[in-house]
Structures are given as C-alpha cells and as structure tokens.
Specification:
18 helices, 14 strands, 3-stranded antiparallel β-sheet, Cytochrome p450, 10% strand, mainly alpha, 409 residues, binds protoporphyrin IX containing FE, 49% helix
C-alpha cells in the first residue's frame, strides 16, 4: 500500500495544534467562572481561550454553552429539541452520513443495526483475542528497560491497533490507516487534506467490504455487512461512514482518557498504591479519571425550537456547544470537583454523553482501559520519572498529556 503523505507533514502534530493542545493548558478555571455566573453561557468562548475558531467564525447565530450538570443533561437527553443534524455541515463533510449526525427515527434504526456488532460476547472475544495480546506486545517492548514514555509507547498506539484488528484490517495497512484517520478529523484546520483522506478511506474500505461480502470472516466489517433488522441491511456507504467515524471516536478518545487517568494516578501516589493493591477499585478509578478530565470536552447540537434550559432561553436555530467537561466538575454535584479522587462514590457523569447518542463504545473503552492500566500497574515500583518536568494534561476540545515518562523495576 502507498500513501500520498509528504515526509515533512505530521498530521498528529497538526491535529493537536488545531485542537488547542499546548495552546490551552487549563480551561477549567474559565468554565468555573462562567458557570458561577450562569448555567448556560451565550456567546463564543474562543476569544476567552485565545484560540481562533473556524467554526465560530462561520456562525450566523449566537452559540450557547451549557456548563452545569443539569443543563448538559437536559439538552443531551432531548434529541428532538437539540438536534445532531448540524454535524452534517462540519465533521459530516468527511465522515459521510454517520450515526453521529442522525436524528430519530433514523438514528434508532441505524443504531440497532450497528449494535449487533457490540455484544457482550464480542466484548469477551475482543478482550481475550485482541486487547490483551496488543497491550502485552507493547508492554513487552519496554518492560526490561526500567523506563518508558507511556503515551508514545503504549497508550497512544494501542487503541488504534485494537480498532484496526477489530475491523479486520491487514496489519501492514495500520500506519497508513492511522495517518488518514487523523487527517480526516483535521478538517477544521485543513479542509482539503480532510476531504482527500475521506476519499482515500472510501476506496480503501470499499475494497475490503467487497471481499468480506464474498467471504465473511469473524471481524467487524463482516458482521456489519451481514447485520439485518426487519429485513433492512446496511449499504456500503453506511458501513463506510461508520468505519470512518470509528477511529476518531474509538481510538483518539481511549488513548486520551487512559493517559489522563494515568496522570491522575501517578500524581497521587497514595491512590496509585491503593489501586495497585486492590484491583477491584479499577471500575471506579476509570470513571473518576474520565469524569475528572474527559478526552473530549464538548459536543455540538442545534436547538430546534425556543427552549428554556435552567432559566436561560435558547432561541430556535442556535448552535449549542455542550460542555461535558464543565458539567463533570459542577460543584453542585461533586465535592472538591477539581480533585482526582478514586475513592468517591461513583455517580453518573457526562463524559460519554447522555440520551440517544450516548457513546456506543463505552464498554469497550472501559475494558481497554482496564487491560492497559492493569498491565502498567504490574510494573514494580511504577512512578513518574523524577527527572521529568511539568508533566500535565492540556488541550481545549481534546485533552491529553503530550508525554508520560515513568520509571519502574
Ligand atoms: C473514553 C473513551 C470514549 C469517550 C470519552 C467517548 C465519548 C463519546 C461521546 C461524548 C459521544 C457522543 C457524541 C455526540 O453525540 O455528539 C460518543 C458517541 C459514540 N462513540 Fe464514543 N467515546 C469513547 C470511546 C469509544 C469507543 C472505544 C468507541 C468504539 C466503538 C466509540 C464509539 C462511539 C460511537 C459509534 C458513537 C456514536 C453513537 C451515536 O451517535 O449514537 N466510542 N462517544
């Protein structure tokens, strides 16, 4: 396989720059200040964060940003009033007509078909046959060295490898697939690159779908090609839109959330020790990590009729930037919301969204994170590298640490 990549372009660095990684270190104080004034902020926030927003520049109506838990929950639970169709004009340009931009009843019918690939049985098989071996392979590369950058050497590459194996892609295609998928979601900064990547992925996936329709295997593409509900099947276009979405939805998020969780643990050594010694705390540690610093801070909706949310009128037609990260630190719901504390009583948070579009891959994300974090905790004496300076999470739309240097052994 060949790619049209130029050696000097680094889509990962470009994407991080477009996502505000490095530029915005800690958006939480701004959200907290605004939330103390109003549950739903009217107006663009790009200026407050000193980032240029291409999307905001194109808006013809004032955007609204819900910041409290109650406001975010009310909006996400009501897909009829707060439509997802606006994605068609942004990320839909490169994904195609994906589940993300569908409203009811189309969304429900499509989701029921896709869900057939995400059964409990599939999860067990993926854990044993894909996730564990992939994680072990990565950890084996650095286990005897006594030091590693957990982001570069494990948490960034492993979820992409898992998704590619789940889909059933040939191993040698992985680097090109990963690069194209990152270029795809860089449309906000480079529309031409995004559209080219979209066309490239269309041809690439269509070839594989044709092969799997003729000779099915035990992979996701084969399951999607055969999924049926009330006599309805998925077309090639529908399968391709889903596959284009999967890598950004499934791999980018899991890499970032598992990295943020590891930062929470490594910067709180008492909690790291508690989890290392009692692995039954793992589910609540994962939920706390993703509450405390979710990988994706906001999602988009459009208000379809004049609606009052927590006392604020959102006029029909307004774009809504639903800020799950701000909701997850609402002091009305959590004590000491800015602190990472895995001993909290687990409560519903908004990191996986809520309502009809609630994340389809959340059980997979949790399972993958548990496998990776368990493997890391097995490294004896694991700690942040004491010579490393200022290891931290950053980013506005997407959040993650740039590196996670650790020592052990
Ligand atoms: C920690 C990791 C993850 C986080 C924080 C996350 C977060 C989210 C959020 C916030 C949404 C709602 C998007 C919207 O409505 O605008 C969503 C939807 C979705 N996620 Fe995830 N996700 C994660 C992992 C995954 C994984 C591993 C998969 C792989 C299958 C996945 C697949 C999807 C899909 C297909 C949707 C669309 C569902 C729909 O529109 O009905 N996600 N996710």
């Amino acid at each position: 396989m060949t790619t049209d990549s130029t050696p000097e372009s680094d889509p990962f660095a470009e994407f991080d720059a477009a996502a505000g990684i490095g530029a915005v270190r800690d958006p939480y104080p701004v959200w907290a200040e605004l939330r103390a004034q109003t549950p739903v902020h009217a107006g663009s926030l790009a200026e407050r964060f000193g980032v240029a927003s291409v999307e905001d520049a194109l808006l013809t109506q004032t955007p609204y940003t819900p910041l409290t838990y109650a406001a975010v929950q009310q909006i996400l639970r009501d897909g009829e009033t707060f439509s997802s169709a606006g994605y068609a004009n942004t990320i839909g340009l490169v994904f195609g007509h994906s589940i993300l931009e569908m409203d009811e009843p189309e969304h429900h019918a499509y989701r029921a078909l896709i869900q057939q690939a995400f059964t409990r049985k599939a999860m067990e098989t993926w854990e044993a046959e894909i996730v564990r071996p992939v994680v072990e392979r990565h950890v084996a590369e650095f286990r005897d060295r006594g030091s590693a950058d957990l982001v570069r050497e494990l948490l960034f590459p492993f979820p992409v490898t898992v998704i590619a194996e789940m889909i059933g892609l040939p191993t040698e295609d992985l680097p090109a697939f990963h690069k194209k998928a990152v270029e795809l979601i860089s449309i906000a900064s480079n529309i031409e690159t995004g559209l080219n990547a979209s066309a490239w992925l269309y041809d690439y996936f269509q070839g594989i779908i044709t092969e799997r329709r003729a000779a099915p295997r035990h992979d996701l593409i084969s399951v999607l090609a055969q999924a049926e509900l009330d006599g309805q099947r998925l077309t090639d276009d529908e399968i391709i839109a889903f596959l284009r979405l999967l890598l950004p939805a499934g791999a980018e998020t899991t890499y970032r959330s598992s990295s943020n969780l590891m930062i929470g643990l490594l910067s709180n050594p008492d909690q790291l020790a508690a989890l290392r010694d009692d692995r039954s705390l793992m589910p609540q540690a994962i939920e706390e990590g993703i509450r405390w610093d979710p990988p994706l801070t906001s999602i988009g909706r459009t208000c379809t009729r004049d609606t009052v949310v927590e006392g604020v009128l959102i006029p029909a037609g307004s774009p809504v930037h639903v800020c799950m990260a701000a909701a997850n630190r609402d002091p009305a719901r959590w004590d000491r919301p800015d602190e990472f504390d895995l001993h909290r009583d687990p409560k519903q948070h908004m990191a996986f969204a809520f309502g009809p579009h609630m994340c389809l891959g959340m059980h997979l994300a949790r399972m993958e994170t548990a496998v990776a974090v368990n493997a890391v905790l097995d490294l004896p004496g694991l700690a942040l590298d004491p010579t490393a300076e200022d290891v931290h999470v950053s980013g506005l739309a997407f959040r993650a640490p740039a590196a996670l240097p650790v020592v052990f052994g």
